[in-house]
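Summary of Year 1 activities. Much of the first year was spent building the evaluation harness for sequence design. The harness presents a backbone, in tokenized form, and records the residue chosen at every position. We chose the following record to illustrate the format because it has been used consistently in internal testing since the harness was completed.
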């Protein structure tokens, strides 16, 4: 056991996209910052994300541009700049699963979609796909709807976490912490082996884990959890699909949101959207049966007979409100020497980073000695 106290500018608790993004920004600006993760990097929400970096079009399906759709509109461009290595966080080399995202409808909804996608509100962000350019899965004669291409992209979230981990591995540690605090201000952290860590600023970026930390500190910061019950479909013959299905029954939001992921020996469709939201009330067997019925109705030309179905539950943690609706923007607030952060969704990580850095004064700690702790590992994805 050591009595050494390690002094830093910033200590981040939580190793999902929020914590890793902020660590990258801080180290780049000269801050002596470290990150502490008690499970595996990305192991809660980030690796369970479908990886979509979108501009909010799906939030506008009810017919109007909402606060969410407007605040998120520039995010695909920001992420593409990061992927090119020209923005605040260098993501050059991160794997992109799809450079575009699609939205398709059945024939009954075609007129509504045509009018909506032709509106000036989303001009330049959506384009109709000519039949000759349809992806393989929509080339079946049985597909009678419309297909649109969105200026969105899909990232491999494991590649994203691995990339940031590789860049920052000397400053990322695994371990449980307890903290001493007075009137909501943390005085120091106590780590597993008795090491003491202190900092000018402590960042709570632990997603769902923020709830317990906030309660322990006695901070008045509301948190809400919005659950999902996702479905994983594995099959070697499944075609690639990155798309929202929009139907007359759920025209204000995607009926199912599809992404495609590779495992060691097969492909996996990861299904979200209204299927996952309504599925919270169903058990695993009921959710699988419902998903099979939905898929047979949406794309009857696909053979699902050899596919393996499973489900995965995840809680989306974010700043709370009276309505339990999704916040439009990230939450970044300073409470004494503690900053509480939720990006709200993967897409908004760059906006969260901008908001966070505006709260930070310059670095003070000087050259800090990293603690002698185990290095953090990377968590698992639902389809692995």
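For this record, the design step produced the sequence shown next.
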């Amino acid at each position: 056991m050591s009595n050494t106290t390690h002094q830093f500018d910033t200590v981040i608790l939580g190793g999902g996209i929020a914590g890793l993004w902020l660590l990258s920004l801080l180290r780049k600006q000269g801050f002596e910052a470290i990150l502490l993760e008690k499970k595996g990097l990305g192991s809660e929400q980030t690796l369970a994300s479908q990886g979509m970096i979108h501009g909010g079009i799906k939030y506008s399906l009810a017919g109007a541009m909402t606060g969410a759709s407007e605040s998120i509109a520039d995010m695909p461009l920001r992420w593409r700049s990061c992927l090119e290595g020209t923005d605040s966080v260098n993501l050059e080399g991160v794997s992109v699963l799809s450079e575009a995202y699609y939205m398709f409808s059945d024939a009954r909804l075609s007129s509504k979609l045509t009018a909506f996608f032709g509106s000036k509100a989303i001009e330049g962000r959506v384009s109709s796909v000519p039949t000759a350019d349809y992806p393989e899965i929509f080339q079946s004669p049985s597909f009678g709807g419309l297909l649109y291409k969105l200026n969105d992209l899909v990232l491999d979230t494991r590649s994203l976490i691995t990339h940031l981990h590789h860049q920052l591995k000397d400053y990322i540690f695994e371990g449980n912490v307890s903290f001493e605090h007075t009137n909501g201000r943390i005085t120091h952290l106590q780590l597993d082996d008795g090491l003491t860590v202190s900092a000018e600023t402590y960042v709570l970026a632990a997603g769902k884990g923020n709830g317990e930390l906030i309660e322990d500190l006695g901070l008045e910061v509301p948190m809400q959890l919005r659950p999902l019950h996702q479905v994983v479909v594995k099959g070697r013959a499944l075609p690639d699909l990155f798309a929202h299905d929009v139907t007359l029954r759920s025209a204000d939001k995607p009926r199912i949101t599809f992404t495609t992921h590779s495992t060691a020996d097969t492909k996996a469709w990861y299904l979200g959207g209204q299927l996952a939201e309504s599925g919270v009330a169903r058990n695993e067997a009921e959710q699988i049966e419902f998903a099979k019925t939905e898929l047979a109705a949406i794309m009857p030309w696909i053979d699902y007979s050899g596919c393996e179905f499973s489900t995965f539950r995840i809680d989306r943690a974010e700043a709370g409100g009276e309505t339990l609706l999704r916040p439009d923007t990230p939450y970044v607030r300073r409470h004494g020497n503690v900053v509480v952060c939720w990006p709200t969704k993967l897409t908004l990580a760059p906006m969260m980073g901008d908001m966070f850095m505006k709260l930070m004064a310059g670095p003070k700690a000087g050259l800090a000695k990293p603690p002698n702790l185990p290095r953090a590992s990377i968590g698992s994805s639902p389809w692995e």
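The chain has a mean pLDDT of 88. Quantitative recovery figures across the full test set are reported in Table 2.
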